[in-house]
Amino acid sequence: MIAEILIAKYLHDAFIRPFGGDVLVVVLIYAFFRIFIKMNYKKLAFSVLIFSFIIEALQAVQYVNWLGFENNKFWSTILGTYFTFYDLLAYFVGYLICLLFKD
């Protein structure tokens, strides 16, 4: 989690922040839910992937504006503000990494 915060706060490059951060966030969400939810790791990883895809789709319709967070840097960064297919690829890579964490 600390790595994710540091990436968001201090890295403004063209690869690590936009791609690596999105890969890492899927792994972090997966790891968090593994603590509390006892289910097949493949199903959990797939559920996190679908959740990530839904959030990305919501970014395409600018849901941050709906929530009134468009001027809040913290929430805009956490929730994301724009849709890109590269994020979907990053989420899929994160999903593949999650599959390495077997029961």
UniProtKB/TrEMBL annotation:
Taxonomic superkingdom: Bacteria
Keyword Transmembrane helix in record: yes
Pfam families per UniProt: DUF2809
InterPro entries: DUF2809
Residue spans crossing the bilayer: 19-37, 44-63, 83-101
Transmembrane among keywords: yes
Keywords, comma-separated and alphabetical: Membrane, Transmembrane, Transmembrane helix
Protein name, UniProt field: Membrane protein
Organism: Pedobacter mendelii
